[in-house]
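seq as requested:
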Amino acid sequence: MKIFRLEQPRVLAYLDGPEPGEPAPGEALVRVHRIGVCGTDLHAYGGTQPFFTYPRIMGHELGVEVLEVGPGDSCVKPGDRCSVEPYLNCQKCVACRSGKPNCCFELRVLGVHVDGGMRERMLVPTRKLHPSASLSFDQLALVETLGIGCHAVERARLKPGEFALVAGAGPIGLSVVQFALEAGAQVIVLDVNAARLDFCRRQLGAQHAINAAAESPLDALRRITSGNLPTAVFDATGSPKSMAAAFDYPAHGGRVVFVGLFQGDVAFNDPNFHRRELTLLASRNALPEDFGRIIRLIEARRIDTAPWITHRAPLGGALEAFPTWVLPATGVVKAVIEV
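struct tokens:
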């Protein structure tokens, strides 16, 4: 069986690996058909991803086919096409017991803490498989990315008509934009990449875009909101500078949601924070119910994932393609590996 593995920062290998074996009760053997490449994978390649260990088979955005199911399990059946929920939680800690398995005390994420899906076959807990009778493997592979934005918007409790700023127009930011629009918000996207901003307006329907390389974000926000500023600010950059600046953008009584992360501390001015009585929220991963909701939205054609995928490579070809995907000049919105 072929695997694609990150040996250490900027060192990739395409090699033979062991077969996964027979599925135990509660497990399924799946064939991996599509793997979405996300910021986590790109940061791991660059050596800047928190919680990551090497060597590691990356890949947690997966569209798979069930080949075999362990004894006594009826959650899925051979032939089912599924999206994989890659968050392996203990089901016992206080977070799991309170309905927050996404931030389990012992959480292990496929492709980050344990080997992921950049291989031909793997074993997956059946409770982590979300089937669809109609979605393609491309669509199923993008469900997890969309889940990050879905959960972040749920955390913010967006209301129709309110201004929501999304800083960072990478794939995670795009998923936030998608669900902020679904919630009925007036969405403002902030980035320094004109092509990404154009994508947000043209393909996703974001109402406003600010190029931070060309104008002052704060001045532009005041202009767009008639001086009121947005009531919700999502930072999906993973940039300490951007995350610190996010505290200046919300209206009084607003909230800041950190969707991206980095290895380090974020500092903010406490009087400014208290004067506005801001709410600061972290958003980590997604919940199981988010996967079902997103699958239904794609099936109903409320969400179109087709424009997202801009680059492709076969599993073996990713050895050459992957290093180019980290380069801004490549213009990657979402790269997909085909197995």
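The mean pLDDT is 95.
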